[in-house]
Design a protein that fits this description.
single chain, 5-stranded antiparallel sheet, 4-stranded antiparallel sheet, about 10% helix
């Protein structure tokens, strides 16, 4: 069920005949306007290029600190995360979009891809996942984890992605 200002106003006893400008003032005074938000956190990508014995598996561990500002003029923002490449064969691509909701929470929409082949630039897609999660207000961290796997015969390559994000009011 979608939350709406109209239903909220009716629940507070404010009559619908109140002029729109006055309703907006009431919403601001009662703390329900969209506020500028600072979304910040850490993204960790771990990867394993599974090799045949006697060769050793190759691993990577990359950490990215991210930050973006969302407000009514910019209610959505792309979070740039560089591609992670390792083992001369593997690559992870992570695309993220942050959207400011009416409740001041932030919705994260993401797409993660694992490629594995004869080079780090190959187009041999092994796994892909779309995901969505909410980062609440008040600076409470939101965590999200996913795993990408190469399930082909003799595959074994995999990547783990962890996101830890907070959504806090932007102090001006």
């Amino acid at each position: 069920m979608q939350w709406s200002y109209k239903k909220w106003l009716l629940g507070t006893g404010v009559n619908q005949t109140v002029p729109i400008a006055l309703k907006y003032i009431l919403l601001i005074r009662l703390g329900c306007q969209k506020m500028a938000r600072r979304l910040a956190g850490t993204i960790i990508i771990d990867g394993t290029d599974d090799e045949f014995w006697p060769q050793r598996d190759e691993h990577t561990h990359r950490v990215f600190n991210v930050e973006t500002i969302l407000n009514t003029e910019q209610p959505a923002s792309t979070i740039n995360v560089p591609d992670v490449r390792w083992g001369d064969e593997c690559r992870v691509e992570l695309k993220l979009l942050a959207k400011l909701l009416d409740s001041n929470a932030v919705q994260i929409e993401g797409n993660a891809k694992l490629f594995e082949g004869t080079s780090e630039n190959n187009d041999d897609l092994q796994d892909e996942q779309d995901f969505t999660f909410i980062v609440p207000t008040a600076g409470t961290p939101a965590f999200y984890r996913l795993q990408l796997k190469n399930t082909e015969a003799f595959g074994g390559d995999h990547a783990e992605i962890g996101l830890s994000l907070t959504n806090s009011r932007l102090e001006e």
